[in-house]
Design a protein that fits this description.
Residues 1-18 form the signal peptide. This protein is an alpha/beta fold. Helices cover 43% and strands 13% of the residues. It has 19 helices and ten strands. β5 and β6 form a beta hairpin. Residues 3-28 have low confidence and may be disordered.
Length: 442
């Protein structure tokens, strides 16, 4: 599930929480018992999967029903976060909710819209150590674990092997200075000065070239120890924005605007990388499935994304986010719902089957090591990034992804030449984020 779609869904759903927090059935504070073997129960599962993705999920749900024949699963796809939130508000919540929007996790947990799973985890002695710390971070908010991870997205570098070979480049760049050099070598301008092929597009919000995906490669932290915004205090942000601006100036902002406006849709076969109009880009593991289906003859490779020259120890890590699953407030069968949540997120064969069907990263060490996991060399790159101790994510917040949106807006102004002083601009951005957090409750 791509991050662009995640952020769009999160923005729509965020406005519904004020109402959702004040209505709907109670969730209880303990762990509801699992149904007896002779007790017939129907568990309703809502997700935003559709078409082949929904079929892949339903196949895995069938595996659960085979193990628990007394629990019938009613799976409903095309149910996004605003529908889930409205159902909680109206007292008609499903038993299990699957969300693509980790940016809403802080709201789900802090509002009680999704129930705290800690009593179930403690009762059943679930080993969370099987899950990387970054993934545990994006499924928990301030000690409340209201979600479990259901596969992950991991981000790295995609590069065009034919372009590299033609230019005599034998390996992908490991540092950002190397990336800059390679990007300039692989860029081709038309006679009128417009961009024919871009080595790397520094434009924020071009596909997955987003602040949260880029930040780990400078080790740029979103928050200070006191929880305030670190935009003005962490040097990684200034370094990141400086690098983006220098590469933007190389291309020319107007040329980049024309190029990105004409680029194909991110999830179509017209994707600029897949069409050979971009030599390198930052993207998730799911792109391997799109390429296999849409442009199978594309000669490409994957690698960890390059890191700041001063922070080469970061190489091999990257950004992660993912699909989350929880039990909404008002679920009619929470005990049976938990059995399903536990199965989907901790059973090795279930995770592997789902990963093979959806082409996302399984979220436990055992599933990553399973010989049943289908992975070519390009997909294994993301498995290695996921296993890196340098894996990073964005912090959960009670007001959703507003701090990311503010940062994206600032980045666009900065790269467009509308911010005369970067230090002052970052200080103003930090204040904007802190003021907004104070309104939403830190």
């Amino acid at each position: 599930m791509g991050s662009t779609r995640r952020l769009a869904l999160a923005a729509v759903a965020a406005g519904l929480f004020a109402a959702a927090c004040t209505t709907g059935g109670g969730g209880g504070t303990g762990a509801a018992p699992a149904p007896r073997d002779d007790e017939q129960v129907t568990v309703t599962v809502w997700s935003n999967f559709a078409d082949h993705e929904l079929r892949a999920l339903n196949k895995t749900l069938d595996g659960f029903h085979a193990k628990h024949p007394n629990i019938t699963i009613r799976s409903e796809g095309s149910q996004d976060d605003d529908k889930i939130t409205q159902s909680i508000r109206g007292g008609t919540a499903p038993d299990v909710a699957i969300s693509f929007s980790t940016d809403l996790l802080g709201q789900y947990c802090s509002s009680g819209a999704w129930q705290d799973l800690r009593p179930y985890l403690d009762r059943d002695k679930v080993d969370l150590g099987q899950i990387p710390q970054a993934v545990r971070d994006y499924t928990e908010y301030r000690g409340t674990r209201c979600a479990m991870p259901l596969l992950a997205d991991v981000y790295g570098l995609y590069y065009n092997k034919e372009m590299f070979a033609k230019a005599g480049i034998t390996s992908p760049p490991r540092t950002l200075s190397e990336l800059t050099e390679v990007a300039k070598r692989l860029t081709v301008f038309n006679p009128d000065g417009s961009i024919q092929v871009a080595g790397f597009v520094p434009t924020i919000n071009f596909y997955n070239h987003r602040p949260q995906m880029l930040a780990p490669h400078w080790n740029a932290q979103w928050q200070k120890p006191d929880g305030g915004s670190a935009m003005a205090s962490d040097p990684g942000w200034k370094e990141m924005f400086t690098w983006l601006k220098e590469l933007t100036d190389f291309y020319g902002k107007d040329r980049l605007a024309s190029f990105t406006a004409a680029a194909g849709q991110q999830y179509s076969a017209d994707n600029a990388f897949q069409q050979g109009r971009v030599a390198m880009m930052l993207d998730g593991e799911y792109r391997t499935a799109f390429i296999a289906q849409q442009t199978p003859n594309l000669a490409y490779g994957t690698a960890p994304f390059p890191v700041a020259d001063s922070r080469q120890e970061l190489y091999g890590g990257g950004y992660t986010t993912g699909t989350i699953i929880g039990i909404p407030r008002g679920a009619k069968n929470p005990g049976a719902a938990w059995e399903l949540v536990k199965y989907l997120t901790t059973d090795t064969d279930a995770l592997v089957e789902l990963s093979n069907g959806l082409r996302n990263i399984p979220t436990t060490k055992a599933a990553l090591d399973s010989p049943k996991l289908q992975a070519d060399d390009n997909f294994r790159t993301f498995m290695r990034i996921f296993s890196s101790p340098r894996l990073a994510t964005s912090p959960s917040a009670p007001n959703g992804a507003s701090y990311v949106k503010f940062t994206e807006d600032f980045a666009s102004r900065w790269l467009g030449g509308e911010v005369p002083n970067l230090d002052e601009g970052l200080a103003a951005l930090a204040k904007q984020i802190d003021d907004n957090a104070a309104l939403g409750g830190k």
